Amino acid sequence: MESRVSAEVSFSVEAGLNMNNKNDKKQRLPTPVPESGPANPGRRRALRLLVAGLAGAALTGRTPGLANNRGSAAWERIEPARERLNGATPKDGAIKLDLPGVTQDGSAVPLTVEIDSPMSEDDFIEAVYLYAGGNPTPELLDVYLTPLVGRARFSTRIRLNKSQSVLALARTNRGEWLAGDREVRVTVSGCLSRDDTYDFDAVMRTRVRVPERLEPGQIGEVRTLIDHPMETGLREDGEGQPIPERIINEFRAEFNGKSVLKARLYRAISANPYLRFPIAPNGSGEATFHWTEDTGESVSESFRMETG
Amino acid sequence: MGLLGAGTLLAAGGLRVYAGRPSHAHVAVVGGGFGGATAAKYLKILKPDLDVTLIEPNRRYYTCPFTNLYLGGLRDFESLGHDYRELQEDYGVRVVPDFAEDVDVDGRRLKLAEGSEIAWDRLILSPGIDFRWGALEGYDEAAAEKAPHAWKAGPQTHLLRRQLEEMEDGGTFVLVAPENPFRCPPGPYERVSLIAHYLKRNKPRSKVLLLDSKDNFSKQGLFMEGWEEHYGEMVEWVGLSNDGRVIRVDPDRLEVETEFGTIHRASVLNVVPPQKAGLIAHRAGVTDESGWVPVDPNTFQSRKAPGVYVIGDATEAAPMPKSGFVANNHGKVTAAAVVADLEERAVPKPTWANTCYSVIAPEWGITVANVYEVHDGELREVPGSGGVSPSGAPADFRRNEARYAEAWYAAISQDVWGTRPPG
């Protein structure tokens, strides 16, 4: 209990939304209102922090930007997604996103992505890109898959600062694009009001669970977690100074030195990043997992896996 | 009881159908808890000539709120029981002690377990929760006889109490807490507090371990402060990121396995399982894929079945929590909406309030309070309307909050069932 530090920070919703919003500032910024807008910073509403401040914005009840863009596909509304597609039109509805329709805690929303694919050497999903257009920055996670996962399915936990649509794009090894999206309503329950605490001593501590033994051809499941606050860079400390961004930005899983799954993590991945994914090893060997922080610091873990 | 004969019809096949008086609208209410009993009573208050039937299988209803005080030895179980005499005798509600089994939404009929039917003009469902048996591997109805949930008041509550009494000094009480949403967000945390109180008094070498599928919970800072103050190292909370999520229960060995493979062995194992809306909501076809009931926020009329209103824990009413306080508010607001609808008047603009009281130790309480409204077609907290008790508050502040909790229970019991505190 001694190592548990209370990071109590006030966070201004509007300040958070304005920061790092250069891509779509014009279309997305809320109209300033005298009571709470940036035009009158002296009366800005300071909210009690919910992890990384992101969830707090749901209290404003505003959905800036979305109303202006209704009617177009989710991937057309998010600029980095359009850039990623670079003119290609994805096959919509081809990705299954499993997310709660209503969530009471925007700081850790469970998300599972599933795509129907044989994941064979000549037909597989090679990349999945996830976006939340209503967050201060839309990028959530980029995942690079190989046939060694056996099945195109993975789970993580994300931060959503308000009700919005979560978008997934996927590219096959043949260069075809797929898309899928899902609406999530984010509320903040009064019975859930709380302070933010995390354990500074445990940062970079990892947890991994891998199947020790699989039958040939059997697909196993890997669960990984690393203790990390995933500081967004959008919060202020008690003195009103911004807390710098500090996140895990890369995760790699390898089997006998070959990539199974690689991920680029953004600031909207929840504290203590969690990834769960399948593994279909082609024999016995060593599974290795690497996490890298944006400071350059990294940590690795290896496990023996037997097949047959 | 004169009402009963007046509206009872015998259909051709001998089927008994109750339809109320021909010239009066008839509202059927399913479930006699905080939501349903309140709705029935306030329908009669707002429109005394309405025919109101309440269907509730228990003649005496025990509340889930305050069972933690019973488990901790602070309260007698019978003080949590309430009956329907006031509703029947003072308000003229027809109370049918039966279980609502099925609904014909188009035909506006309710089918009861013992074979009779009820014809209604408007239907209010307040069915509470059911458990998603098997959603947590190894935890089904049979498992609950060994590792109780005690998340509905009754035999399960007694079973857990008996197990605590039989537990050896130096044993470990383990509580498994679910993901959101679930009934009574602060409930698991109040429960471990008051069980720690019981153990500290009676079996001081014991330990209390809370394994949680969440990283944060209701009034977290205040609970942790209270645990440290009263129970020191006796209470340990393990959250999601510390491998607190249980993925398998072995009820015979009283063992649980967490996501990353830790096995915890309990002397007494209390599993609060994943939940969904009560049975009749599913039979009525008003639930969605989440297992809960989406409703129009202004009236709590089902989004799927016109004329059917759903209130209380069964609904998707976030950010309002699944609490008895909120269900009582739903009952009143929805009674007003139903009466307005029957009288073809505009529905009054709703507001709801909630306070969740939690008792951490005798004379030591904490609260969270909020007011809710409809804004842009969605439920939200009225900005600035509430908050939690201050941290680091002096003992007399906590003592007052514990007394407010007792006073709240007495007041709401009187409001819902007419139960007066003893003495």
- The amount of helix of chain A comes to under 10%
Number of domains of chain B: 2
* CATH-defined topology of chain A: Immunoglobulin-like
**How many domains of chain A?**
1
- Mean pLDDT over the full residue set of chain B: 95
Query: N-to-C SSE series of chain A?
Result: EEHHEHHEEEEEEEEEEEEEEEEEE
Q: Poorly predicted ranges of chain A (pLDDT <50, ≥5 residues)?
A: 1-70, 190-195
Q: Profile the largest sheet of chain B.
A: 5 strands, mixed
Strand content of chain B: 25-35%
Secondary-structure-based class of chain B equals alpha/beta
CATH topology of the largest domain in chain B: FAD/NAD(P)-binding domain
Please give a structural write-up.
Chain A has helices spanning 13-18, 25-28, 74-77, 79-85, and strands at 4-6, 10-12, 46-48, 91-92, 95-98, 102-103, 109-115, 125-132, 139-145, 152-158, 164-172, 177-186, 197-199, 206-209, 213-214, 220-226, 248-255, 258-265, 274-279, 285-293, 298-307. Chain A has 308 residues and is mostly beta strands. In chain A, strands 4, 6, 8, 9, 11, 12, 15, 17, 18, 20 and 21 form an eleven-stranded mixed β-sheet that branches. In chain A, strands 5-7-10 form a three-stranded antiparallel β-sheet, with no helix packed on it. In chain A, strand 17 (248-255) and strand 18 (258-265) form a beta hairpin. The model of chain A is unreliable at 1-70 and 190-195 (pLDDT under 50). Chain B is an alpha/beta fold. Chain B has ten helices and 25 strands. Chain B is globular. Chain B starts with a helix and ends in a 6-residue tail after the last helix. The model of chain B is unreliable at 1-6 (pLDDT under 50). The chains are: A mainly beta (308), B alpha/beta (423). The A-B interface holds A 1, 6, 45, 50-51, 59, 61, 100-105, 107-108, 110, 163, 185, 187-195, 197, 207-209, 223, 225, 227, 271-272, 274 and B 179-181, 185-186, 214-221, 224, 228, 233, 240-241, 243, 259-261, 288-290, 316, 318-321, 323, 354, 356, 368-370, 372, 375-376, 378-381, 383, 386-388, 391.
